[in-house]
Structure formats: C-alpha cells, structure tokens
Amino acid sequence: MKLFIALSLLTGQTLAILNLTQISFTKLSGCQADNGNTVDAMFQYGAVKAAFEETYRMLYIIGRPPSGSTQKNGCLRIFSGLDSGQPTEQLSMQLDNPLDGELLSIAACSNAIALSFSGSNPVSEGHVRMYHPFQFGQSTLEPISNEHTFVGPYPKHMAFTSDCSKIVVANEGIPGVINGQLVDPNGAVSIITRNDGGNPSVSEVLFDVVNGDNTAAYQQRGVRYVYRGDSGFTNTLSQDLEPEFVAINVDDSKAYVILQENNALAVIDLLNNNLLDIYAFPEKNWANYQLDASDTDKQYQFGHYDVRSFAQPKVMLVTSLFSIPGDAIITANTGARKSFDFGSAGSFSEGTRLRTLMNDQALSPGISQALVDAINDNSRLGRLYASENDGKNINNNLIETIYFYGSRDMAMLSANSSGLFDLFSSGDELETSAAAQYNDVFNGDTTSTNSEPTSEMDSRSDDMGPEPMAMAGGSFGSSDIPFLISGSRNGIIYIFTLRTGFPALESLYRAGNQQGTWNTLYNNDQIGDNIISDMGTIEKGILSANPFIYVISEASGSFSIYEVREN
Fold first, then answer.
1. pLDDT by residue (tens digit) across 95-111?
2. What are the C-alpha distances in Å from 432 to residues 301, 376, 429, 505?
3. Number of neighbouring beta carbons within 10 Å of residue 331
4. What is the DSSP string of 491-550?
5. Spatial separation of the C-alpha atoms in residues 454 and 463, rounded to whole Å
6. What letters, b where the CB count within 10 A reaches 16 and e where it falls short, cover 87-110?
7. Is the pLDDT of residue 462 over 60?
8. N or C: which terminus of the chain has fewer CB atoms within 10 Å of its end residue's CB?
9. Interatomic CA distance for residues 304 and 547, integer angstroms
10. First vs last Cα of the chain: how many Å apart?
C-alpha cells in the first residue's frame, strides 16, 4: 500500500468519525494434518497472511501446518464476493511439494501472485514460486513457470514494485542446526527482476558492511547487536540482523527493510540493487508517558517512569509528504525479544524481569530511588521484561539506562540520507484508549481455548502491552483523506486519520464477545479477531465507494472484512 498524503489543515469544520463496519467473519479450517484431515478449531493457523488481487477482486489467504504436524508447507485459500457478507471460496490448495519448505509469505500484483518458501531446513536457501492470478472457473492456480527462484534463507516477507517488474524479498536468516551444529545465516535481501519468458535475475543485497571495524560504529548509531555467539561460536552483526518486513516507496526507487530485533531499518537502492545504509529507529523515553508494566494486578495501572524502550516495529507503510523531503515511514511498534532453543546445539533468550536484574545486582547504584522503588514493586515495574545487555556503563558493566521492548505506539518518521527523524508518535494512546473503551480485555492475550477473554486481561502488560501487529492504509471520502488502521494482538483495532497531515486516533473497534471461554466463543462465531497477524486495504472504488480492509487472525484462524465509513 502506497499512500500519498497532502498536508492540508481542515479548520472550522465539524468532522465525522471514521469507524469500521463489519461485513463478514469467516473461520477457516487448519491446513491438512499428517492424516490428510483438516480440523475446525482454534490454534490451527489456517489463516496467517493474505494478499488482495485487484483485477479479479479476490483475497488470497495462506496458512501454516498445525502444531505437531510433520507437514512442512502450508495451504492457500482464495475468496471472492468480499463485499457480500458471505465470501465465496473459489479454491483451496494444500501445498505439499517435498522440495518446498514452510510457506512463509504471499504477495500479489496485477499480473502475478508470489509465494515464498523456506528451504527444507530453514537455514538453507529459500525460494519464490510465481503464479498467474486465479480466474473464475479455474480448478487450480496456474504457475507462470515450473521453476522456482532461489533466494536467501527464510524469506519472511515480500513486496512487488508498483509496475510488478521486481519483487523485493526479506530473508530473515533465522538460526538453526546442520549436522548437530548451530548455524545462524546472514540476513539478506533478494531482489528478483522478473523474466516470465525465461530465467529471472536475482540480486542479493548483503549486510557485510556492518562487520569488522564497522560494527562499533553501527552500534553507536543504535543498531542492536543482540546475539554474539557463545561456547566458541562467534556470531557477527550481519548474522544477527534478521530482515522481517519490506515496503517500497512511492516511486519504486527504494525499499525499506525492518530489522526488528535489532531496532533498525535497512535502506535499499532499487535502481542499482545495493544497500544504501542501515539506521536505528529512535528510542522512546517514557518519562512523560503513561505505562502499565505489570501483569499481576489484573487491571490497568499507569505510571510515569524514567525508562526507555526500543521501537522495534513489525510492519510499516511508506508514503510521501509533500512538505517534507524524502520518504515518510509509518510504523506499528510492536516489540520483539530474540530467542531460540536447539538443545545441545545452542540456545539463547534475551529479556529479564527488572526485579530479577535488581536482585542480581545488575543495575547501577546511580539509578534514582523512585525508580528503585518502582522496580521493587511487582505491581509497577518489577515484572517488566527489560534488556540485560543494553544501557550499560562501559566502566562497571552495570545497567544505568533501562531499556525494554516495543514503544507501544504508532509512529511517523522522515527518512533521508542522514537517517530517521521523528515526525509523530501516538505516545501512550494505544494503551490509555484501550483502557478507557475495552477495559475488560486491556493488554490481553489468547493462549488457551479454556480461558475467558477477561481472565487474560492485563497478561501482556509486562511484555509488550498492546502489541500493534498489522497495519493498513488508504484514503476515504471525496477529499481523499488518508487513514491508517492498526490491529493488535488482542483484537483491538485502532483507526487513525490524517486530516491535518499527521495521524490522529479517531476510534477503536473490537469484534466478538467477552463472556465465555474462547472455545465457546469460537463455536458460536463470537470470538472476534484473535492475534491479528495481517491486514490490508481494498481501496475505495473497487468494491464500493468506500474502502474496505481485511483482517487476518491466526489464533482464531479467521478473516474479517470491514467497510471503512464516516459516521
């Protein structure tokens, strides 16, 4: 989604409020299990990611195999009639090619659908398969070529340029094991230049520039170097960088790639297919914002604390502001802690509760008494997961500045050759507005079919709070006013408009009921959108005069269609 934003100030007008109206809610069964059957239940992950293809107005939804299954690939469903109130499934495909690994991502353009797969071992090279868009009456998705295009390890996300000529692939390069030995591949970006009549060309953009003598300089910028190896295994910064998400700017000249755990953004030149630079996202100082950092009191309890957090966005949109040079990047700042466990081959986990760090004497004696008191109180800061490696004094190796994970907001930044600069932050508004409107599920989660939504209230406050996980953007009305919509882990959807050029929160929406167990709510089609994992826009004029959004939720294995309306 590429969004053009004109900075116009609407004054002296009575503004309507932008809201969502649910058009449909559809549950999907899980992908095939080992016995060939599918299961209709929660946590089957039949819906994880999606892409909308505009020409035939169809939604493509991919799922991953259910937990415990030896099936490695995934499944694909295609739906039409998205504005009908009851979308029609046009195709269901089980992807079970033994040469493919896990189905990771989908991207759509006017003349192609792209699917990315890991290797059979996630640390080996992945690949991308290209298909013609599905048309009514077909019985399968027709490949553009029987060959697949090799890319880097674990191709987590993809994006097409606007003319569909290139696909930019973010290869996460997650750690794994080969022959009993821990391996952490280099994160990288693959740029596929299409040649449907022959072999496409692939340019690999590597991050080797951050290694060696340059590592300290990138750390000084704020790029996090999280896992450095242990027990004789040395992990370079380029191996530690893990591309998560890619977005392309309005004129197709640059791709921006989120390195989430590293709190950084890579900028790729798409004209020359090379790396321009890597910048750190700005950190957030919470002294002037309200924060709920405890999961023990089962209520919202805000305080002001002299602590900081890493933005660590999971998704973003890239747009153009007419009054500001360079690109504007809008992020949903989720937070992420790096961890893996491969038994005797190696394991790693970051993040320790603040009270444990205090008891372990890992904090500097120079920390204020007010902060010490808050850390010693589990209903305030004691339960918050914080970094045990960042903010240390170089002389005594003790933590003097406390950092935790995720800035719990929506942000807008300017990107130019000098780096990233803050234009806007929603501050503490995601949490405070949720507390005011959806108190019973504030900072909640979905972890067990036998739990009730209200019993899981506040359970993510000690970790990453509201966790905005997905984002969509577009424009509405005769004046083409831009909007931004973000979906959170616990199903709350935040609707922002840019009537004055910068985001302003106008409304919140949460589907589903709150009374009863998750399983009962699921069976009664009252579960709502649980653990939102993807969302996107169907722009105005395609289905009706108003825009629509689709919301994909992995815990409920469902997708919802909403119309974006002013009320």
1. 988 778 999 999 999 99
2. 10, 24, 5, 12
3. 30
4. S-EEEEE-TTSS-EEEEEE--S--SS-HHHHHHTT-----SEEEEEEE-TTTSSSS-EEE
5. 18
6. beebbbeebeeeebbbbbbbbbbe
7. yes
8. C
9. 39
10. 24
Phi, psi at 180, each rounded to 5°: 80, 5
For residues 133-159, average pLDDT: 95
Whether 3 shows a pLDDT value over 60: the answer reads no
d(CA 310, CA 283): 5
Residue 117 CA, chain-centre distance (Å), reads 18
Q: What is the 3-state composition of the chain as percent helix, strand, coil, each rounded to the nearest 5?
A: 10, 40, 50
Residues 6+ apart with CB under 8 A from 84: 23, 24
How would you label 483-506 residue by residue, b for 16+ Cβ within 10 Å and e otherwise? bbbbbbbbbbbbbbbbbebebbbb
Contacting residues for 501 by C-beta, under 8 A, at least 6 apart: 5, 6, 7, 8, 9, 321, 323
Return phi, psi of residue 362, to 5°. Answer: -90, -5
Q: Annotate 69-117 with DSSP letters as a single string.
A: ----SEEEEEEE-TTSSS-EEEEEEEE--TT---EEEEEEETTEEEEEE
Summarize the confidence of residues 67-75 as an average pLDDT: 79
Residue % of the chain over a pLDDT of 90: 88
What would the two tokens of residue 127 be?
């690949």
Tokens for 38? Answer: 């599918």
Q: Look up the pTM and report it.
A: 0.96
Tell me how far apart the alpha carbons of residues 345 and 181 are, in angstroms, rounded to a whole number.
Answer: 5
Domains and CATH numbers, the chain: 2-336+406-566 (2.130.10.10)
Residues 6+ apart with CB under 8 A from 383: 293, 294, 295, 296, 353, 354, 355, 462
DSSP 217: H
CB 484 within 8 A of CB 405: no
Residues 502-527: tens digit of each pLDDT: 899 999 999 999 999 999 999 999 99
Q: In what order do the strands lie in the sheet with 88-95?
A: 49-53, 58-63, 74-80, 88-95
Look at strands 2-5 and 313-321 and give their pairing. Answer: parallel
Phi first, then psi, for residue 236 (nearest 5°) are -75, 165
